[in-house]
Amino acid sequence: MIKIISDSTCDLSKDILEKYDVDILPLHIILGDEEYLDGKNITPEEIYRWADEHATTPKTSAPALEDAINLMKPYIDRGDELICFSISNSMSSSGQVMMMAAEELEASNRVHVIDSANLSTGIGLLVVEAAILAKEGKRAAEIVQTIEEYKPYVRASFVVDTLVYLHRGGRCSGVAALVGGALKLHPQIVVEQGAMHPAKKYRGKIKTAVLSYVKDQEEGLRRAKKDRIFITHSGCDVQIVGEVRAYLESLGIFDEIIETRAGGVISSHCGPGTLGVLYIEQK
Fold first, then answer.
1. Are residues 275 and 232 in contact, defined by beta-carbon separation less than 8 angstroms?
2. ∠ at Cα 280 (25, 238), nearest 5°?
3. Three-state DSSP state, 275
4. Model confidence over 250-283: pLDDT tens digits?
5. pTM for the full predicted model
6. C-alpha closest to that of 186 among 223, 161, 155, 216
7. What is the distance, to the nearest Å, from the Cα of residue 250 to the centroid of all Cα atoms in its chain?
8. Rounded distance, CA 27 to CA 38, Å?
9. How far apart are CA 271 and CA 234, in angstroms?
10. Would you give the DSSP letter of residue 213?
11. Residues 231-255, buried b or exposed e (16+ Cβ, 10 A)?
């Protein structure tokens, strides 16, 4: 059998993980002297509260090697092959930890670690595709090859409500954060070649910015694989999310429009009110 594993930054909901039989390896979130497991014993709301009280961004770190070994071992023991997904290697050593665990288990030939070159449901899109292929009975090598071919076509971007969290995390200068706040600027962040890059800036209320951002994606959306698209956010007003969904539905492109909440690691860096639409363009 083939087992699919991802680190916790894939931001897939419990329902989706159960539907596609995907296991999660959590990254760590560090709040001062306390350490937590992403998605296990800390919520984004608790992270925001701590960050605002301490005026700093929580630190995050790769999964523990012991946790990776413990997660993989039962599947290795029963003879499975594993396909493991990690957040972009430029953002975390999560993938290296997975490879080290495979070596410790003397199973490097049965553990295939894929650097997603992405984050959040940009990873999740690839995870779901791999799980579907596994259920169809494809061999591990075929699945890995197909996923590698999909990677350049993943379209992951988002608009942030506040620059404060990016500034605290060193991804935005203090001057830019102050100016952005005063002018109500909401930058679009695009993930390309495994790294985040600023793109267009939207001005005004976050609702206006988000809807403008989504509508600006229409050309790309019409080239998308129709199977599914993710609306992933870090705690947005339900009305904003609803209007984004309604717009995507009006295009009549997608078989499935899935809403997910960003997990602790992603939320730690982007802050509340962030929303993105993530999909795969047709090859």
1. yes
2. 75
3. strand
4. 999 999 999 999 999 999 888 899 999 999 999 7
5. 0.93
6. 161
7. 25
8. 5
9. 7
10. H
11. bbbbbbeeebbeebbebbeeeebbe
